[in-house]
Structure formats: C-alpha cells, structure tokens
Specification:
The complex is a heterotrimer. Helix content of chain A is 37%, strand content 22%. Chain A is α/β, with parallel strands linked by helices. In chain A, a hairpin with a 2-residue loop joins strand 1 and strand 2. In chain A, helix 4 runs parallel beside helix 7, helix 6 crosses helix 7 and helix 7 runs parallel beside helix 8. Chain B folds into two domains: 278 residues, Orthogonal Bundle (ABC transporter involved in vitamin B12 uptake, BtuC), CATH 1.10.3470.10; 87 residues, Orthogonal Bundle (Arc Repressor Mutant, subunit A), CATH 1.10.10.10. Helices cover 76% and strands 2% of the residues of chain B. Chain B has 18 helices and two strands. Chain B has a two-stranded antiparallel sheet. By secondary structure, chain C is α/β, with parallel strands linked by helices. Chain C has two domains: 149 residues, Nitrogenase molybdenum iron protein domain (Rossmann fold, 3-Layer(aba) Sandwich), CATH 3.40.50.1980; 121 residues, 3-Layer(aba) Sandwich (Rossmann fold). The termini of chain C are far apart. The chains are: A alpha/beta, B mainly alpha, C alpha/beta. At the B-C interface, helix 2, helix 5 and helix 13 of B face helix 8 and helix 9 of C. Chain A: It holds the Pfam family ABC_tran. Chain A: GO terms for molecular function: ATP binding; ATP hydrolysis activity. Chain A: This is ABC transporter related protein. Chain A: Keywords: ATP-binding, Nucleotide-binding, Transport.
Chain lengths: 258, 385, 314
C-alpha cells in the first residue's frame, strides 16, 4: 500500500470513513511478535475474510482491534472514530471454544446479552428486548431452541446462538472469529445466509476463516496474514498462488489456479 | 418443637442462627458466581489470607474489637486476591499453583504472627486463634448487626449489577467488546467475596469458610439450569445450613456450631450430587442403565425382524445370528414377548403387529439396514448417517 | 558419590545421637547457676522461689497465654535442650507439649508429687486424655506438695545446693500455709447462699472443693474445644435461675464467650455483670505482685469475695 497517495486523496475528496482502518498495529507477547506492523483497510458493505496458517495472529488481530488484548503500537479507527466512540456500531462473535457451555442459561438469555450494551447499567431486559432477541434467533433458525439449556445444543447450534447474539447488537460492522469451524452443514448454510443478508443491508463483515477451500465462494475481500499482512484487497486480486505461497510456505496444496 | 421455637425466643440461639443464616445467604449468593468463574478456591485463599490480617490489626491497634479485626481480615484477603491476579497476569504459573502458593504463604505468615503474639507475653491476646475455627456460639446482637450491614451492601450490589456479573462470568471477552470494564467488575466481584469471608470468619473460621462459598452453590447447580434460580437456591441452601447447624448444636453440650453448619451444607451438597434429577449421579446411573437395556432390546428386535422376514424365527436361528447359546436365545425371545413384540412358543415364533411397527420405526430412525442374512449382500448394506 | 552419601548419613546419625544425650537428667558440672526452664508462669514463679540465687529460670509461657493450647516453637525447643532441668505442671495441662516432655528424662512434672487420692477425677473423664483435673494450684495446700518436686529435682542436678533448696522449701511452705488459712478466712465472709462462682472454663474445681464454693465453667477443663451453642444457653439458664449476679472472665481465655453468656442472661431480663478478671491458667505480668503465685491467689480471692459480696468491682 502506498500510504502517501492515499493521504493525498483523503484530503482531496470528501470520503466516507472506512469501517475499519488499522495502521502499524503490533502485538507482542514477551519478545515474540504475534502481529507486526499490520496495516489494514476494510471496505464497507463487503464480506471480508482473514486467512492464514495456525499461529498467524488472526484471532489476535480481532482481539487487539477490539481492545481485548493490549497492543504494543498502532492505531485503529472505526468509521473514522476511536473504539470507545464506535462501540455501538460493532458486533462480535467470539470463538465458540472461548466459553464454558455448561453455564446455567438458555439460548434466549445468551442472545439477550447482546443487548446489554444498549440497556446500560442497572436496567433489566424487558419485553422489547425479549422480542428483539427472539427475532435474532429466528434469523438463525433457532426459534424452537430459545429455552433450551445451552449445554444441550449441538456445536453448530451454539455457534448460531453466538451469531444471533451479535445480530441482536444491530451493528454496522461485525467481527466473527472462525464461525464455520466444526459446524454441521445446516449451520454452515445458515451462517452464510445471514452473512449475505447483512451484506444486502450494507453491513460490513470481517471473518477469521479457517478453510481455504471455501474462501472464494463466500467472500469478496481477502486479507492474507502471517504475523504481517502478506496481501489484502479484493478476493480475485489477492487469492493468487504467489500470495498463498508467501503466506503458507511451500506446503500449500489447495487447488488454487483453477 | 421447643427447639425450633427457641430460634425466636432464646437470645443465644436466635443470634447464632441469624449469624449463621446471614453467612449462608451471602456465601451462597457470592459463591454461585465464584464457582461458575472457576474461582471456588479463591474463597479458600481469601479466608486463609485473613489470618495475618487479623494478627496485624491486633498488633497495630492493640484491641480485639471485632470490627477492627474484620477490617484487617478483609484488607489482607483483598491484598491476597490482587496479588493472585497480578501473578496470574504476569507469570506463567498456572492458576492452581498460584492459589496454593498464596494460600499457604499468607496462612503460614499468619500462624507465625500468631505464635509471635502468643510468645510476646501480651496478656490481651487470648482469643485470636479462635478465628482459625470460628466461635459461632459467641455471636451476639452487635455481631449480627455488623454482618447484616456488610451482607446487605454486598447483596445490594449483586442485585444492581446482576446482568453485568452474569455476562462477565459467562463470556468476559464479549463483555469487554461491549465496553464493560471487565477488570474492574471482576475486582468488584472478588471484593464482594471478601465481604462474604469477613462475615463468615467469626462463625465458621478461616479453615472452613471455603465450604460455605462452594457447597451451597455446587448443590444449587444440580437442581436448575437457570442462573437466577441457582443463585436463589444457593442462598436458600446456605440459610438452611446455617439455621440447621445452629439448631443441632443447641441440642447437646459440647457440639461446636461452626463445624455443624459446614457439615449440614456438605450433606445437602452430597444429597444434591446424588439425587438431583438430570444431573444427579443416581439418576445418571439409572438413565445409562435404561438406555443400555433399551438399545440391547432394540437390536434384538431388529435381529428377530430380519430372521422372521428372510428365514424363520426360532431359538436356533436367533442363537446362530446373535452368536449365543439357544437357551439364551430362548430367554431373549421371552423378553421380546414380554414387551408384546413377538408371540409363539417352542420352535415357532413370529413378530406381532406391534413388533413389526416398532422394527420399522427403528430402521427409519437409525437409517441402518440390519446385516443381511446373505453374506453376499453384506457389503451392500447402507451406511449409518 | 556413594561413599560421600555414606559419610553424610553417618554424620547425621552421629549428630542425632548427640541430641538424645541432651535430654537426660545429669548433675551440672562446675560452680554455676542451674539453668532451669519452666512452662506456665506460675510454675516459673515456684521454681524461682525454691531455687533462689542458685537457679536461673526461664519461663516459656507469658501472662495471658493458655497452657492448654500452647505449642512449642523452635526457640522453645532450643531452650529446653540447653536446660539442665525442666519443670512443667503436668496432668496434661500443657496439652500440646506432653509428647515432647515424655521423651525428656530431665523434664519433671511437679504434680507428680501430689498423692493421687487428693486429685479430682471428674466422672467419665474428659476428651479421653484427662483422667484428672489439672488445675491443682488453686488448692494452696496441694500446691505446697509441688514445691517438694521442685526441691528434689533441683537437688538432683545440683547436689551441692540440696540444703539450700530444702531450707527455702520449708520457708515457702510456711508462707503457703498462711495463705491457705487467709483464703479460708476470706471466703468465709461470703454468706453460704452466695458462694457460687461461674467462670470461663472449669479451672476452679480444686478451689471450690477446698474452700467451700460451688463452681461452674462455660467451657470444660480444657479450652481446646469450641464453645457450643448449648453450652452458652445452659449456663445462661443456670445463672438466671439461681439469680447469680456476677460472672468472671479469665486472663488467658477470650472474653468473647463470657460476654455472650452475659448478653444471653440480660436478654432473659436478669442482671449479670462481669465480676472481674481472674488469673486461671496464667499469673499476671512479670514484675507485678500478680506475677507471682501468691499474688495471683490473693488477687483472685479479693476479686471473688468483693464481687460475690455485691461490691463495686468493675
């Protein structure tokens, strides 16, 4: 990316701020860098994938951008604003494995948690909130499971509950951390449908994706990450053998040049 | 019952029972969150860490006023929890090792201080060691008042911040993404647990306090899948343990109240672990046993069904197919007959209408074609879903 | 490396063998004061009285220390090892040190000098370990016997001082006889109906028997066990029923339990105040009159008499 010309253009034209603008992001544990000098610009209204080998820092990128882990350096802007100002416009679907599903609560309750941001301190969820939550569950096809204890849900259903929770946040920008990992075909289809629906509504979705086979079918924008950004841009331009080799090393063997 | 009436009429029993009930109430509520956050042993750390706080408070002020000592206990417990968090964040020491190190470190320091005070010849120090095991029977009106105020504050905060604590416990990452001050809330929750410990120190003492945070919550979890119900139940179990423990200790001389309260709470937990529906061990065992039996019968029926359709259903053919002895096969046929799935006697058996219907239903449900009789057809059998 | 291990092992064994020697009772060599160690501070006082200038006594327990609960520290063990002779009360008063003393020939239980028929054995015994009530020192006549145990023990390690110790024992026993008579006289001033004494734990059995008082404690003979709710209730009921107006706290037992009884009795609408602090399992601060055995007894008696006569004691 040529930073200077972008800046010139920015001052010349009145531009809508990008949903996500990351500059020089670096995250390190002890001496080892996990993310190094990451620059990223996510375009609005598209389905964007972040892809890379294990340990590439993909989850870390999302967490650092959302302020969940400290960063060593860098700036992050959402729609031209810092995180604190833009929180209402951001939705988050964490990895399914990040919680203990034996928690005593049901699917509806979990989705309601997505509305806590709107409720603020001290207020309890009421009828309006319940309806919004049920609506979100409907969108992922889990209406019948609203009162099911979450431990009794299958992996795919749990993933959809997390998705519904994010939908309840009614955001403009969504972050999803490996939403397709280990889910059944029905769930995969449901998630994809939701994503496409969001795109139709003009929302932006950033997804950490684990499966190179499906990247081309599902996404418009691709970022290849391996501690540093190898390439980032529209899918067709970015998904090339050279870029993949640079990201994954020689052991790449997905049918790329088809 | 005279004894139960005594809870209201007798000054001693009333205050002891109230004190124990307050402990149970606050311990039950805060223990619910502690156990769900997998910080059950934190209560143990806080309680053991209180000992040096009590000793230092005595050394610095020279008095044994309960409020001063409890304040010392609370501060020390709080310090221990902060230290623990700091160690967890900045080193690679796993959680249980950190807990162990802090617990034994603080407690050892406390015992050292206690010994030092005992040897120092200050005649006013008698009774500090009573904090190790508590002296529930000596709770009087003022103590109950102190406990009620402290407990009230803690419970009020839990009530106000219930949904925040719930989210924090379930999914701290998501909570953080919403902008919730996760660290601050976590510290607050731990601080409220410190208050619970302060209430419990005079009643059950340092060593047994952890039980009052863990047992009622663990028991409550067994009976419900909703957090709100769990918290209420946990509080109820706590209060019950407190009152029962106090009442039982009032039936005979030389029965220590604190340990009895803990014993009652433990029995309630044991009962819940074994007998609660769905999660209880006894129910689990019964369910497993029933499942196994059912599956065996279903496979048996399917075997009988295949035999009946493609050859003939006799004890010999069944025995051969199931690779058992004919005598056993006969017993199995009787079992099927008992369920109304087959009829017949001796050598000739057939499936009933019910049996046919059930077999078909099973085949549909399992989408499995039972092994065909003909070995050639074996390879072509459909695969399970 | 194996050879090194063997030498190390041999060294450790040799050193531990050396330790054992230190617990035997042997006459001292040379002309120096006898190093004596005593446990409870009234025992320390006794050894001081009998030993005089020929003995240097160190006491392990200070005022306010409960001998039932006291655990020896490493420093204490060192003192015990370096001593020529050790005196302890015995009859399981020093509950947590008994094991230690049983391994030490040079440790002498002074209550061994009291004929067993004179000891109080409560029915059923208590807690398995107590055959006899150990609080013998409040019967001044019994305490006079223990002086002889100290005299004999000191004479064994310091034969040259035998005569000195014998003389001092005679003088002290005379003093104790006077004290005994005085206590009888003082208690005699209390009308028989008022001669009931309630304390924090059952430390005054011998006192009651010798001087004609009914005594009762909240806790049993040992303070090790936790007070139970029923114990508080029963004592409160007893006090209210009998109309007793004073209860006594003890210097080495926490006040809290007694205060709980006071609160319970007051809730029943009866008067009860704390009649004063008694020295039960420990004498007072060293250097004060109450720091000696005689002073301790005198303080107790004055406090009891004053309170039971309805005096203005706080």
């Amino acid at each position: 990316m040529i930073k200077s010309s972008i800046n010139e253009q920015a001052s010349a034209l009145p531009r809508r701020a990008a949903p996500l603008e990351v500059r020089d992001l670096t995250v390190a544990y002890h001496e080892k860098p996990v993310l190094w000098d990451v620059d990223l610009s996510i375009p609005e209204g598209q389905l964007c994938a972040i892809v890379g080998p294990n340990g590439a820092g993909k989850s870390t990128l999302i967490k650092a951008v959302l302020g969940l882990i400290p960063k060593a350096s860098g700036t992050v802007q959402f729609f031209g604003q810092p995180l604190e100002a833009a929180r209402r416009r951001i939705g988050y679907v964490p990895q399914r494995s990040s919680v203990d599903w034996d928690f005593p609560t049901n699917a509806l309750d979990v989705v309601l948690m997505g509305l806590y941001g709107r409720l603020g301190w001290f207020r309890r969820p009421g009828k309006a909130e319940r309806e919004a939550a049920m609506h979100a569950l409907e969108q992922v096809g889990l209406t019948a499971f609203a009162h099911r204890q979450i431990a009794q849900l299958s992996g795919g259903q749990q993933q959809r509950v997390f998705l519904a929770r994010a939908l309840a946040q009614a955001s403009d920008l969504y972050f999803m951390d490996e939403p397709f990992a280990g889910v059944d075909a029905v769930t995969e289809a449901a998630i994809l449908q939701v994503m496409r629906e969001l795109k139709k509504q003009g929302k932006t979705v950033v997804v950490v994706h684990h499966d190179l086979e499906t990247v081309r079918d599902y996404f418009d924008h691709l970022t290849l990450l391996n501690v540093q950004v190898i390439a980032s841009g529209p899918l067709e331009q970015t998904f090339t053998p050279e870029n993949l080799k640079a990201t994954y090393g020689e052991r790449m063997s997905v049918g790329v040049g088809r | 019952m005279d004894l139960l009436a005594g809870i209201f009429t007798d000054y001693t029993l009333r205050n002891v029972a109230l004190g124990a009930a307050l402990l149970g109430l606050v311990g039950g509520v805060l223990g619910s969150f502690a156990t769900l956050r997998r910080q059950s042993l934190l209560g143990d750390v806080l309680a053991h860490a209180a000992l040096p706080g009590i000793c230092l408070a005595f050394l610095l002020t020279g008095t044994k006023a309960p409020l001063i000592l409890l304040l010392g206990a609370g501060l020390a417990g709080w310090l221990a929890s902060l230290l623990m968090l700091a160690i967890l964040r900045s080193t690679r020491l796993p959680e249980d090792s950190t807990l162990g190190v802090i617990l034994s470190g603080f407690f050892g320091f406390g015992i050292g201080l206690l010994t030092f005070i005992q040897h120092s010849g200050d005649s006013d120090q008698a009774g500090l060691d009573k904090f190790i095991f508590g002296q529930a029977a000596t709770v009087v009106g003022e103590d109950v008042l102190t406990m009620a105020v402290l407990g009230g504050v803690a419970l009020l905060l839990v009530g106000l911040l219930y949904k925040e604590f719930k989210l924090l416990t379930f999914d701290p990452a998501f909570a953080s993404s919403l902008g919730l001050p996760v660290r601050g809330l976590g510290t607050l929750l731990t601080s409220l647990t410190v208050i619970a410990v302060m209430i419990g120190l005079q009643t059950v003492g340092v060593v047994l306090m952890a039980a009052m945070l863990i047992a009622p919550a663990a028991a409550a979890r067994q009976w419900t899948n909703r957090l709100s119900t769990m918290v209420w139940l946990s509080a109820a179990f706590g209060v019950l343990s407190g009152v029962l423990g106090a009442v039982i200790s009032a039936t005979r001389e030389n029965l220590p109240t604190g340990p009895l309260v803990v014993l009652t709470a433990s029995l309630i937990t044991l009962f819940s672990l074994l007998l609660a529906p769905e999660r209880g061990l006894v129910w689990d065992w019964r369910r497993t046993r029933n499942n196994r039996r059912r599956i065996r019968l279903e496979r048996l029926l399917l075997d009988a069904h295949v035999l009946y359709n493609h050859a003939e259903l006799t004890p010999e053919s069944l025995a051969q197919r199931r690779r058992t002895a004919p005598a056993r096969a006969k017993e199995e046929l009787e079992e099927l007959a008992a369920r109304g799935w087959v009829t017949g006697r001796g050598e000739r058996w057939e499936l009933t209408e019910q049996g046919h219907a059930e077999a078909h239903r099973l085949e549909q449900a399992m989408r499995v074609l039972p092994k065909a009789l003909n070995p050639r057809a074996e390879g072509g059998a459909g695969g399970a879903a | 490396m194996k050879a090194l291990h063997l030498w190390a092992l041999a060294l450790v064994l040799l050193l531990s063998a050396c330790q054992v020697q230190d617990f035997a009772l042997r006459p001292i060599d040379g002309d120096r004061p006898v190093r004596a160690v005593a446990t409870a501070n009234f025992v320390t006082d006794l050894v001081q009285q009998i030993g005089g200038e020929r003995v240097q006594v160190t006491g392990l327990m200070g005022p306010g220390v409960d001998p039932h609960l006291y655990k020896a520290s490493a420093g204490d063990v060192r003192k015990l090892t370096q001593a020529d002779v050790v005196f302890y009360s015995g009859l399981f008063l020093e509950g947590k040190m008994v094991e230690l003393f049983e391994k030490m020939p040079k440790a002498i239980a002074i209550t061994d000098a009291i004929p067993h028929e004179l000891l109080i054995a409560p029915e059923g015994g208590f807690e398995g370990t107590y055959t006899y009530d150990p609080h013998v020192w409040f019967d001044v006549s019994l305490w006079a016997h223990t002086a002889e145990a100290v005299r004999d023990g000191l004479s064994k390690v310091d034969p040259a001082g035998a005569g000195y110790y014998a003389e001092r024992t005679r003088q002290y026993q005379a003093r104790l006889q006077e004290l005994d008579a005085w206590v009888k006289q003082e208690i005699g001033r209390i009308p028989p109906a008022q001669r009931v004494m309630v304390t924090a734990h059952d430390a005054f059995g011998y006192f009651g028997r010798r001087y004609g008082l009914e005594v009762r404690g909240l806790q049993g003979v040992s303070t090790v066990a936790e007070t139970g709710t029923r114990d508080v209730q029963e004592l409160a009921a007893f006090l209210a029923e009998r109309g007793i107006r004073a209860i006594f706290v003890e210097s080495s037992v926490p006040r809290r339990s007694v205060e709980a009884v006071v609160a319970a009795v007051r809730a029943r609408g009866k008067e009860l105040r704390i009649g004063g602090e008694l020295f039960s399992d420990a004498a007072g601060d060293p250097g004060t009159p109450e720091g000696t055995y005689v002073g301790m007894v005198e303080h107790n008696v004055r406090t009891i008499v004053s309170a039971l006569l309805g005096g203005e004691h706080p």
